[in-house]
Prior knowledge:
The chain is of the alpha+beta class. It is 20% helix and 30% strand. It folds into three domains: 2-71, RNA-binding S4 domain (Structural Genomics Hypothetical 15.5 Kd Protein In mrcA-pckA Intergenic Region, Chain A, Roll), CATH 3.10.290.10; 72-186, Pseudouridine synthase, CATH 3.30.2350.10; 192-288, Pseudouridine synthase (2-Layer Sandwich), CATH 3.30.2350.
Amino acid sequence: MAIRKGRVEVVVQDVEGKVRLDAYLASQTQQIGRSTLSEASTEIYLNGKMAKKSKNVKKGDVITVIYSQEFFEGLKAQNIALSVIHEDDDLLVINKAQGMVVHPANGNYEDTLVNALLYRYGEGFASEIGDAWDKEGDKDEDFASTLLSPAIRPGIVHRLDKDTSGVMVVARNRISHRILSAQFKEHTTSKIYIALAKGYFPKKQGTIDAHLCRDKKDRKKFTVCSAEEGRNALTDYRVLKQYEGYALVRITLHTGRTHQIRVHFASLGHPLVGDVLYGKSDGTTLMLHALSLELHSPSTGLCMKFHAPLPERFKTFIKGK
């Protein structure tokens, strides 16, 4: 484990009424997440003087944040089989298997997608894209709560939870990384998921518009909250088939917050089947799958759409009921 210092400076633009320093930072930059601001090692300065994150800001104020980021050295390349949907010079698209962790973190130093990518493309793959990050400062919204360099997650421009399967894209060079990251940040991609959610849905379709923030009682979880406390999150859903006790649901994700679908459906009283973090154990694994992803080619600008078929675990569960 190694430590790297980071620094972000933000000049406050027009604000209406009283706005807290941490709330302003969260609304203006993807580089600093609320969890980072809460770390004891994070230093926050307002106009050159150390300040509390609860202090109100006004136009023209200069906010400086100095933070520490942990990263892993000496990552091991591993020959891990990947289910490839598409591959070209710009990107790799896979059907991520359930159970695969995307990038190294505490307790998961091996057998991740990053380990597989280092084997597939060579260990120089990490440093090439990592250099691009250091020069250009790209940042994907899905990692707003962490500050890890792409040097330890080469090519990763979005993420799927460990137990979520389905379509995932990886950038193969620094230009693609920059362009694809921007598409996810600006919400120009189209992401469709399929899930099994518990309970009876009286409405066959709906929209969940609820801000999300980290749960203060359990740092592993997220929860719905006020606009002042968290970040906006928007989810559309349509019930494809209602079964006894659960439903097959098609989900359109308009934002990419951590655990967004899981938290949103739990907040409605419809936790996903197999979600032990936001619901109760029911003897099966998480029933959430990234069905399709639509984006634009980094080199041609043409629309590209990728699809990962419904996994067998869904069919087995439905048949078993």
